[in-house]
């Protein structure tokens, strides 16, 4: 069965420092996509970054990068130069790849607190 | 702003009632997804539609149903509501139905069942 595990319920980081949010996954699918979303206190879900299981290079989007280690089944999110506005819940998600319809599963989330 | 709109933003109703949540996808997106976010269950995938047809089904209760109309907007119908149905309901959309397609989420509808 597919599963996403985010082991850090809460994390603190000093402003301007980098932080890594952990995500491990379990799947029997050969091809899958990994996503990270941010949910601020206002409630909306904001897409941050995507990594395909077939991608050899780690994905990067501005201050966000995904540390993808396929053999370890981990897809950690790295936020560089943290800002106060980064304080939010962060969710790791996974979905099989293909052209059909597929379920997306989400982890329980990690709440990040950025300290001034 | 993701471009996905959901109405209403808040909904308060009583047990046993029926409600309809509405979603308009981003312009050009053919897929619509519905999710439920609750404190005890987290984010749960409910159902996906692609160009009017059901494509994938998740943990959707039989009391819940959805459809996608020819203009691609979607509605999620929740009936015989129970206290445990109180949650934030998200709609998301993507261009196609592929697993690599990024889903863009709407602002959500917060449902409170009293």
Give a structural overview.
The complex is a heterodimer of chains A (116) and B (114). Chain A has 116 residues and is an all-beta fold. Chain A contains no helices and 12 strands. In chain A, strands 2, 5, 6, 10, 11 and 12 form a 6-stranded mixed sheet that branches. The relative contact order of chain A is 0.34. With 114 residues, chain B is an all-beta fold. Chain B has strands at 5-7, 10-13, 19-24, 31-38, 42-50, 53-57, 64-68, 74-78, 87-94, 104-105, 109-113. In chain B, the strands form 2 sheets. In chain B, strands 2, 4, 5, 6, 9, 10 and 11 form a 7-stranded mixed sheet that branches. In chain B, 41% of the residues are buried. The mean pLDDT of chain B is 93. Chain A binds chain B through residues 31-33, 35, 37, 43-47, 50, 52, 91, 93, 95-109, and chain B through 2, 31, 33, 42-45, 48, 50, 54-56, 58, 88, 90, 92, 96-100, 102-108, 110.
The largest sheet of chain B, given as strand count, sense and whether it forms a barrel, is:
7 strands, mixed
Low-confidence stretches of chain B: none
Binned, the helix content of chain A reads: under 10%
Number of helices of chain B: 0
Q: Largest chain-chain contact?
A: A-B, 29 and 29 residues
Q: Which structural class matches the secondary elements of chain B?
A: mainly beta
Structural class of chain A, please?
mainly beta
Distance between termini of chain B? Answer: 31 Å
Task: List segments of chain A where confidence is low: pLDDT < 50 over at least 5 consecutive residues.
Answer: none
Number of strands of chain A: 12
Order of helices and strands of chain B: EEEEEEEEEEE
User: How many extended strands of chain B?
Assistant: 11
